[in-house]
Amino acid sequence: MQSFITTFVNCTLLNSFNEDLTKALSCSGIPFHKISNPAMKIFLEEYTKMKIPDESTLRKYHLKTIFVEIKNEIRELISDFKVCFVVDEINDSMKRHVVNILVKPLNGTDIKPMLLNVSFMDNINCSTIAQTFMDSCLILWPSGIRYDKVSMVVTDQATYTIAAFSNLKNGAFENLKHVTCLAHSLHRACEAVRIENDLQMISFLASKKY
User: Based on the structure, what is the number of domains in the chain?
Assistant: First the structure.
């Protein structure tokens, strides 16, 4: 009986440690594979006196628990306030479109937008952007989207993104204000200047006789 209790306590402690380790790595932006580095593993085991798990263990058995916890924390922060969404699109190393949806409460406090959803797409257009936004709203409000609480969304100036939120504003999101990012506008302007200068340089070099 004593052996069973000891084993149970040790397993509970190890499980708690693994969850805390998963949360610490996730919140710090440290890739899980870093704990597989021999030097890191020896250091952690030496000073924590705990067996350091394989990265796959954290990913398979503990990451989802942390994900659920973070979602619940976001819902608590949002509470009954109106919200602002930020939609950010990038391309990853596999040439996929990655759409990040962030959210923050409009409650008068300085809270950074919190990552709510990440969607990977092979093709991106007006429909996929709109659907990803709707899916994100359902993550925030699983019992039903609070259309009246969606006050603002900030996006880039991609044509399909503007079209997507124009359609949503004309539909259920009547109170939605769509704001395009100033930094993205400046980037596009600078990119246009760079391209023009590159073309001028190419024309100049092409006209030279060597």
Answer: 2
Cross-strand pairs, 86: 102, 154
Q: In this structure, what are the phi and psi dihedrals at residue 87, rounded to the nearest 5 degrees?
A: -110, 115
Q: Is residue 66 part of a domain?
A: no
Judged against a pLDDT cut of 70, whether residue 46 lies above it is answered with yes
- 206 found inside a domain: no
Q: Which residues pair with 102 in a beta bridge?
A: 86, 115
| Same-domain check for residues 162 and 120 | yes
Angle formed at CA 106 by CA 172 and CA 67, multiple of 5 degrees: 85
Question: What is the C-alpha to C-alpha distance for residues 180 and 182, in angstroms, rounded to an integer?
Answer: 6
Give, for 172, the enclosing helix (H) or strand (E): none
Confidence (pLDDT) at 4: 43
| Count of Cβ atoms closer than 10 Å to residue 149 Cβ | 17
Q: Which two tokens stand for residue 77?
A: 């922060």
The confidence score (pLDDT) of residue 191 equals 75
SS3 3: helix
Give kind and range of the element (H or E) at residue 91. Answer: strand 83-91
Backbone phi, then psi, for 153, in 5-degree steps? -140, 135
112: its two tokens? 């950074």
According to DSSP, residue 179 is labeled: E
Question: For position 2, what pLDDT does the model report?
Answer: 47
